[in-house]
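Troubleshooting: if your tokenizer reports a length mismatch, compare your output against this known-good record of 135 residues.
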Amino acid sequence: MRELSVYIYTDNLVNLTEVKMIVYGIVNCNTVKKSLDWIRANELTYEFHDYKKKGIKAEKLTEWFNVFGWEKVINKNGLTFKKLSKEEQQSINSPEKAIAFLIQNTSAIKRPIVEIEGKPTLIGFKDEEYQQKLR
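Known-good structure output:
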């Protein structure tokens, strides 16, 4: 596999090599599988964090909330969230309540989430976004 090259646009174009990429998700998720297939097909190196097995910390969720917004990090289309009553869904109405819910229900975290050099970069999988951010 080749190392990931990421270009960060600032005042100067910088080519970062040997960049660390972490993909957060759940192994059995079809969207995660599509993401990992894309990453492998493009011969990128990555580390995988299965938050169903390893869990997730409040600090990590807070980082993601700061980048993507707390409501986007909750997978509202997933079965875990849909199984909640309307009242339970509506009670998750702040970042603090979302953190408590997601720590206990990691399957309700939108996936995958990709970090590059410790910075949340992608959420979910869209080929165009991966082409843009990871090529």
